[in-house]
Amino acid sequence: AKRAGTHAWVLHDPSMIDRRAEDAALSDDLAAALDRGELNVLFQPMVDLVSGRPIGAEALVRWQHPTRGVVSPVRFIPIAERSGIITEIGLFVLEQALLQLKAWRQPLYISVNLSPRQLSEPTIVHDILAVLGRTGMPPESLVLEVTESAIVDENTGIAALRALREHGIRVAIDDFGTGYSSLQYLTRLPVDILKIDRSFVGELNGTPAGSAITEAVIRLSQVLNLTTVAEGIETAEQAAELLTLGCDTGQGYLYARPLPGPDLDDLMTAVRAD
Ligand code: C2E
Ligand code: CA
Ligand code: CA
Ligand code: CA
Known about the structure:
Blueprint: H1 6-12, H2 14-33, E1 39-48, E2 54-65, E3 69-71, H3 73-83, H4 86-104, E4 109-113, H5 116-119, H6 124-135, E5 142-147, H7 148-153, H8 155-166, E6 170-176, H9 183-186, E7 193-196, H10 198-201, H11 208-223, E8 227-230, H12 236-245, E9 249-250, E10 259-260, H13 265-268
Parallel strand pairs: 2-4, 4-5, 5-6, 6-7, 7-8, 8-9
Antiparallel strand pairs: 1-2, 1-9, 1-10, 2-3
This protein binds ligand C2E and calcium ion (CA) (3 copies).
Ligand C2E binds next to strand 2, helix 3, helix 4 and strand 6.
């Protein structure tokens, strides 16, 4: 006990042991969650900053656990990644998302998160095209969101993204600016859209320092001919500043929280109101 330094403390940290036990329990429950219909998909509109109209929506998964209540994807997606069940969950979310888009019957797109593990599956391109075929939705209506680290870590991932893009599916880099890929590397990545992480949007306050990173990302996108999406917009001031900086698309609580698809029917089907 005398030399019970950092190492012993870590091993006996009760919160860490609880966490591991809970991870294991959640991992077991997750295997059955899909079959039991406990997973559902919410949708958050993405808005054209110039016209103010919705042009698409991001699909975000939720888990209604029978005893724990709603479990956040921040908690269970990493667990699903480790167990591999993310592959099944990901295809479920994709299908639900495309069916919702079909129900809206509008020229909108749907954005679906793709985890690193999914991207490294040898059958990923085939699986995604199969879901598009089954739902009867065109590849042009789909955007896949991947993180920088997912692309950089997985060499196979780049080949898969290239193939998906050749079929007309668009690729967005999620949480852009929080990863570590070099700017030079970015010019060679198969992407169409950069999503500015909400931590940068939260810093916008009308000062040059507050907008430095957001502005740099928008300029970079313009040079590379990419579309920019700002996430986590909570105030009208942030939206106005993003518009001034030349950002194309916005997403955040200012417009709508993630909601069940039918709750967005009025908003999403007013697209052609012109
Ligand atoms: P993300 O892809 O970066 O999704 C954006 C997150 O920001 C969502 O959290 C959304 O609800 C939240 N958000 C949107 N607008 C605002 C805002 O104005 N303010 C604030 N504070 N937050 C906002 P959510 O739904 O809890 O999802 C968290 C993360 O879980 C996602 O981050 C994504 O990484 C992951 N995730 C969610 N659904 C899926 C999925 O179907 N597949 C995979 N692989 N990951 C998913
Ligand atoms: Ca995302
Ligand atoms: Ca994001
Ligand atoms: Ca994020």
